[in-house]
């Protein structure tokens, strides 16, 4: 009998709103409120991304550095992470996503969160929702164990997300042919993972993914209503 997995994207799949910028602002308020004055610099990084001078991963690193700093102790950051995760559970989780998660648990599926968000806070949200595993963008550590702005490895987005899921399966000793995978995401960037999964679900999807899902015969769920 095959093991069964339910793999979920996070931002706008489980959550109503994206979490990355709110996390940076929350952490800045908790750790160094004066950094909020640097917000105009974040507009410059967005302009650089729009002009294709930096990619998504570098954009994340730059904004992390603006609002949190080059490096911060894990202990200090942990307090901001936990309070942020609590706030997300109170205000930013769609009831339909909670119901879907509950159904997957009842069906015996192993819950896996696969998100482009940083693990440092995505794991705290996942733990509160009952996920046993998290695949996410990793932060680096300096020689003193402080969390730094640099991404460790790949930004868990698009084809890199699929590669990271496959690497996780190998680490867990799970052969792809021996598992049945149900995958939920809202965004076209995850279409490669949808196609790779056994049960692709377009959840709260934007128009491009809805059109693709209809053409491919995938399930379409809307948890926003």
Structure description:
The structure is a single chain. With 225 residues, this protein is α/β, with parallel strands linked by helices. It has a single domain (3-221), classed as Rossmann fold, CATH 3.40.50.1000. It is 47% helix and 21% strand. The chain contains 9 helices and 8 strands. Strands 2-5-4-3-1-6-7-8 form an 8-stranded mixed β-sheet. Strand 7, helix 9 and strand 8 form a beta-alpha-beta unit. The mean pLDDT is 95.
The value of Rg in angstroms is 18 Å
- The main sheet orders its strands as 2-5-4-3-1-6-7-8
- CATH topology name, in short, is Rossmann fold
Name the CATH superfamily assignment: HAD superfamily/HAD-like
Q: Main sheet, how many strands, which sense, barrel? A: 8 strands, mixed
In round numbers, the mean pLDDT is 95
* Through-space gap between termini: 36 Å
Q: Give the proportion of residues in helices.
A: 40-55%
* Whole-number total of structural domains: 1
Looking at the overall shape, the CATH architecture is 3-Layer(aba) Sandwich
Give the ordered list of helices and strands.
EHHHEHHEHEEHEHEHE
- What CATH first level would be assigned? Alpha Beta
């Amino acid at each position: 009998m095959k093991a069964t997995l339910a793999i979920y994207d996070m931002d706008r799949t489980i959550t109503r709103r994206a979490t990355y910028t709110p996390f940076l602002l929350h952490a800045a308020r908790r750790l160094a409120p004066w950094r909020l004055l640097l917000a105009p610099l974040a507009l410059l990084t967005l302009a650089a991304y729009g002009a294709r001078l930096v990619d998504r991963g570098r954009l994340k690193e730059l904004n992390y550095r603006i609002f949190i700093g080059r490096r911060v102790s894990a202990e200090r950051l942990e307090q901001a992470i936990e309070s942020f995760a609590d706030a997300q559970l109170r205000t930013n989780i769609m009831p339909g996503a909670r119901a879907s998660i509950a159904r997957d648990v009842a069906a015996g599926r192993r819950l896996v969160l696969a998100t482009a968000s940083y693990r440092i806070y995505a794991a705290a949200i996942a733990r509160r929702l009952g996920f046993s595993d998290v695949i996410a963008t990793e932060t680096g550590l300096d020689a003193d164990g402080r969390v730094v702005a640099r991404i460790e490895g790949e930004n868990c987005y698009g084809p890199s997300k699929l590669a990271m899921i496959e690497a996780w399966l190998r680490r867990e000793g799970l052969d792809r042919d021996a598992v049945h995978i149900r995958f939920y995401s809202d965004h076209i960037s995850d279409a490669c993972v949808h196609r790779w999964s056994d049960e692709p679900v377009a959840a709260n999807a934007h128009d491009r993914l809805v059109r693709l899902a209809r053409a491919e015969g995938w399930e379409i769920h809307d948890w926003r209503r």
